[in-house]
Design brief:
Elements: H1 9-13, H2 23-32, E1 37-38, E2 44-48, E3 53-57, E4 65-68, E5 70-71, E6 77-81, E7 91-98, E8 103-104, E9 109-113
Parallel strand pairs: 1-9
Antiparallel strand pairs: 2-6, 3-4, 3-7, 5-6, 7-8, 7-9
Amino acid sequence: MAEEREASVQLLKTFAPLDGLKRDNLAALAKKVSVRTMPAGRILRVETLLQAVVHWSVDDWHTVHDTATRDTTLGVHVADLETPNLRAGARVDFTFHWPDNDRWEGADFAVCVE
């Protein structure tokens, strides 16, 4: 029996964009490669399987921004959060609003800047 290992991001990048992946498999894949840290000076790209609004903050929810995702036509929606001015030690907090059924995700996520 083959040894079970988590897929590396480099390996995942060798696949054609989402070709042949079923929605359930894509969701499982996304969880394996979720980002918890990012380098300073970069834009944070958030990917979802459905249209969403990313509700986010860089100051512990004192100021919030809403960025709508855009459909890539590849089975995934993306939102680029304007985070290039963040310094190491900052944190981006975010959650999702799903406009198709007017529902909030019900959980917050965070990415720390290194």
